[in-house]
Write a structure and sequence with these properties.
With about 210 residues, the protein is α/β, with parallel strands linked by helices.
């Protein structure tokens, strides 16, 4: 049975954020709000929790996981970024973008694309997600909360609890945060390529 925390979307309660972080630190799998939609989240490099995400979403080995980072400094620890890319990233973070970048050695192998050695990275514009990242003091491994057979992520915290209470350890109710995905920008080549148009305005990359 999962824990269900109602956390204020603008002023997250410190006590609940700490409890949520403890659950994830201990190997828990959680559902957390972001600026686009709810996401499955676990500790970076937690093999057991990552495998639970793969089973829950029926993901193949080539699925690109996303690291939720606090800022560009943390992002650059886990992804290789040149000066031109850095300027583009700075102009679009925090926000509704996932950037595909070459991974550094800090990224656990099970999170990388097996052939391309890439990782998805984003900096969310959501107070609860940011408070949780601050408390964790490291990125979170995340995956969109899209269940097998569905086209859109689950968006209602109570529906999420009813559907997943026996499959996850934590559900954070941060209110309604939409059900559209991020815009995905592949920055592994010289010219960035928008591979999924989502919430973020991608005009700067076209």
């Amino acid at each position: 049975m999962s824990q269900f925390f109602q956390i204020h979307p603008e002023n997250p309660q410190n006590r609940l954020v700490k409890q949520a972080a403890d659950i994830i630190r201990q190997g828990g799998l959680g559902v957390v709000p972001t600026d686009c939609a709810y996401a499955l989240a676990c500790r970076i490099g937690d093999k057991g929790a990552t495998e639970r995400v793969q089973r829950l979403r029926q993901l193949g080995p080539k699925h690109n996981f996303t690291l939720l980072c606090r800022d560009l400094s943390e992002l650059s620890t886990f992804a290789k970024v040149d000066n031109t890319q850095y300027r583009l990233l700075k102009a679009h973070t925090p926000g509704a973008f996932t950037f595909i970048l070459p991974a550094t050695r800090e990224v656990p192998r099970l999170l990388m694309h097996p052939k391309k050695r890439t990782i998805g990275i984003r900096v969310p514009d959501n107070a609860i997600a940011m408070a949780l990242l601050e408390e964790m003091n490291e990125p979170l491994m995340t995956s969109s909360l899209i269940m097998p057979g569905d086209d859109m992520p689950l968006s209602d915290p109570y529906d999420i609890r009813d559907t997943l209470e026996h499959h996850v350890d934590l559900v954070i109710d941060g209110g309604y945060c939409g059900f559209e995905a991020t815009t995905v920008v592949d920055m592994t080549e010289e010219v960035p390529e928008v591979t999924r148009q989502g919430v973020g305005d991608a005009s700067a990359f076209l």
